[in-house]
Amino acid sequence: MPPLARVLVDYDFNLLQTIAEQWGVSLRARSQREAAQEVETLLKDPRRLTAALPVGARAALDALLRAPGARLPLSDFARKHGEVRVMGAARRDRERPWANRPSAAEQLFYRGLIAHGFFESSSGPREHAFIAEDLAPLIPPPEPDLTPNPPGAPGDAPAGAHPAEPLLADDVATLLAYAQILPLKLAAGTLTTQLPSTLRRFLREPRAIDLEFQLALDLDLLTGTPLKPDSETARPFLERPRWGQALALADAWRASTTWNDLLRLPGLTFEGQTWANDPQATRTTLIGWLRQVPAGRWWSLDAFVAALRDRHPDFQRPAGDFDSWYIKDAANGAYLRGLAHWDRIDGALIRAIVTGPLMWLGLLEGDAKAFRVTELGAGWLRGTPPVPPRDAAVPVLTTPTGEVRVASAAPAYLRFRAARVCKWIGLERGVYIYRLTPLSLKRAGRQGVKLERILDFLRQASAPHEVPPRLTAALQRFGRHGTEAILKEAIVFRTANPELMETLRRTPAVQELLGEALGPTASEVRAQDLPRLRAALSELGLLLD
User: Fold this and answer.
1) Domain ends where: 456, 481, 506?
2) Less Cβ crowding at N or C end of the chain, within 10 Å?
3) pLDDT in tens, 201-214
4) CA distance 87 to 100
5) Total-model pTM
6) Is 544 part of a structural domain of the chain?
């Protein structure tokens, strides 16, 4: 901070005279320089600095004294303690702002106790309210604030809140398993527009697929073109406990420079290239606030957001700028500028991070009304490496018909191995369901997975249960004879006589749409080819019943 002499030398004579008058002193100086020196002397008189101040002014002064460097961003200071109305000497004499409903900030400014100036901050040069560096030590210090003051207030336990689970970790393991079978291709840097239905059915939190995909890229779990699991990084990740995977993903999210939480808010559109937010700095700031919330205690999300609006409304806005970001309401195209739209943008971002990534990672639990910091989350938020709990010893369950059931609580690498050799059926109440089929076994064989290894895996993963003998026998028989029976769901196309069917099989526009013959007047047709077959027959003058 600049010294008091450096502050006062920039003040006009009229303002210096006004400051002296607030202390009951009439200046004898005749020049601005002499006046600045005289005001400096009177302000550094301990008898004056111990004089009582109005309650609001003293609270504002204490806020600066408690702040690092005895300075605060002017936008924050003014929101809580009022503005100093800017005016020249003539208007100052006419309106006398120090006597005309002065704010707490004006009471201090016209006593010469605070000043304004630009200083470097994490977001660039920013105007601050401050106390001169040689004046601050002379002011009686504020009473120590010994009471914890976390943002917000306790809340009620939500009735329908789900317990903490590492949903993101489960879904990243699913993503890696799918990419091992069918390599993924990028489309404009996202998977959302081409997300296969099979993969979607196995996601525990489908809304997070883009985040999961980006974190897999950030951790180099997926590499190459097309994308496949990287053996040097993916296997060690999958062999970690589920909660260890969640912590690795949490660290990657906190440090990510490629994932922008703000740009993912629903209902908003973002325009312009002259502004940019800093998502990494915003996450660090929010983590610092959550660190103050008592762990294990239900906390009102509404009160948390309201407290942050009151204390740090410009947490993600450089220099408190609420006007230059080009953000529009996607519904009506209206620009959302000014502090009036804080809840729509800044408050919504806080809610989205709390109920999104932090709950999906299991670091918080709750719902849109209240949240609670988990034990693991408390360690992560405070930067003390938490010890993730070990995965439950949950066996893989198999049935005589080839069904393989893996609970989400089981080690992820078990599920990855099961998914690699089975057909994917679905996800039911936290249990992943697969089935061993000739097609899935052939696919595994093409990737170098031998039948003996599959049987060994099932025996080890099913322990202490036994793999059903009939399933073992069926797998061994498949190894000797291959596919011996097929069950297929198809549409049957019939003609009135064999001659018509023969004609159609020789017609180029139709023959490619007909599958296996089921007799002289019947043929298979794939469901997806039915519209094309109907159109082709119409061109030939045939109506399809």
Assistant:
1) 481
2) C
3) 899 999 999 999 99
4) 14
5) 0.73
6) no
